[in-house]
Design a protein that fits this description.
The chain is of the alpha/beta class. It contains ten helices and 17 strands. The protein has two domains: about 40 residues, no CATH class; about 325 residues, Metallo-dependent phosphatases (Purple Acid Phosphatase, chain A, domain 2), CATH 3.60.21.10. Helix 5 crosses helix 6. The relative contact order is 0.12.
């Protein structure tokens, strides 16, 4: 009955017209009902954009001392030819498994004609950058207290090698534009990565080139982060070269700067280096702050000033998500302890993977267990539960 009334109201057969009633009786079919609602007034279908996710990895200082480039030369077997890539063999799978991997390079590349140096000034073989890239790193932070060791020519040479290897960087520049924040897109998420250092070891930037290296200044960092947001950055990550060598505890200076810059609400994650030992992970104003990731690759002498802890490092994996409304959620960091194996090719060892082996000698196992114990003391709550 309701269908018949609707049909009549729409200009169909009148209630008293027996002709159509007879037809319906014979066929058993109801007359078609035609909607008079204009298509434009129908409620639209709402599609909620999916949550976007990405994974990132970070690691500590790459600080090339003389024994390391000598080992890189032995890898090639050719004088004045260097291959650093085998040094990352043990962690390559981990580093390359994430969507964005960021290292920290503390040394400049030697300009043409410059001999290699490893303290107090540093200058490394150009092949180092290709070695880092071979591990799966996409970019590096390079603002450090040694970034200006080879002055402007060293920065120019270093950045040219990054370009040649297809890697990005932050923290130093060849011109004023390059020191400004830059935004890159990873898995549909717009990311800004910034890098700053506490010092240049007494060296001064030229008056006409103050942009060569980004120095830590809370007001400057906050302004840069805001600029990155204006450029469309949804996620802002800050690399900080800070702390005191070789102090594992967070210093008052680190805490002060972290408090100041995270209070701005412009930063999603802080990762740190420089102390050459592993430091704690904390949340500062709700922002995950990895204060120090130790040494990724170095040959610090394990005596006197630097102890065995200078061989410890971490690869820190962070997962984050961006909701439809732009809200960024950063999960708790996951720590993968590493250790520099000086006796066997300066290979960066994945400590948990090594301890899972059944063919380790008792002395090897003792060494890895000691390294893990030191890292656990600083980052125990965040160490990966599995190898």
């Amino acid at each position: 009955m309701a269908l018949l009334v609707a049909a009549a109201a729409c200009g169909g057969v009148a209630a008293g017209d027996t002709g159509d009633d007879d037809t319906m009786a014979l066929t058993g079919e109801l007359p078609a009902v035609v909607s008079t609602v204009p298509p434009s007034t129908l409620p639209p279908t709402t599609t909620i954009p999916p949550v976007r996710t990405m994974s990132l990895a970070f690691s500590g200082d790459v600080l090339i001392h003389t024994p390391i480039w000598e080992e890189a030369e032995r890898y090639t077997g050719v004088k004045d030819s260097y291959d650093f890539s085998p040094m990352w063999n043990d962690v390559r799978g981990l580093v390359s498994s994430v969507d964005l991997a960021i290292c920290h390079l503390e040394v400049p590349i030697a300009p043409p004609g410059q001999e290699f140096l490893s303290f107090p000034l540093y200058a490394s073989p150009k092949e180092l950058i290709a070695g880092i890239a071979s591990a799966g790193y996409d970019r590096c932070s390079i603002a450090s207290n040694h970034a200006y060791d080879m002055r402007g020519e060293g920065i120019d040479t270093t950045l040219a090698m990054f370009e040649q290897s297809g890697m990005g960087w932050a923290g130093t520049a060849r011109n004023p534009a390059e020191i400004e924040p830059r935004v890159t897109e990873v898995k549909g998420i717009k990311v800004a990565h910034l890098s700053y250092t506490w010092s240049l070891n007494g060296l001064r930037l030229p008056a006409d080139e103050p942009w060569r290296v980004a120095l830590i200044d809370s007001a400057r960092i906050i302004a840069d982060c805001k600029k990155a947001r204006e450029m469309g950055a949804e996620v802002v990550i800050v690399s900080m070269h800070w702390g005191t060598e070789p102090v594992a505890n967070v210093t008052p200076y680190q805490k002060k700067i972290a408090e100041e810059i995270t209070a701005s609400g412009e930063i999603d994650l802080i990762v740190g280096h420089h102390s050459h030992v592993v430091q704690p992970i904390q949340q500062v104003n709700g922002v995950w702050t990895v204060f120090g990731m130790g040494n990724s690759l170095s040959s610090h002498p394990t005596r006197e000033f630097f102890t065995d802890a200078s061989q410890d490092g971490v690869v820190v994996v962070v997962n984050l998500s961006v909701a439809a409304d732009g809200t960024v959620t950063v999960d708790a960091p996951i720590v993968h302890p590493t250790w520099v194996d000086k006796r066997n090719g300066y290979v960066i060892r994945d400590v948990l993977q090594q301890l899972a082996r059944t063919d380790l000698s008792s002395s090897q196992r003792t060494t890895y267990e000691a390294s893990l114990k030191r890292t656990t003391k600083m980052m125990g709550d965040y160490i990966s539960p599995t190898a």
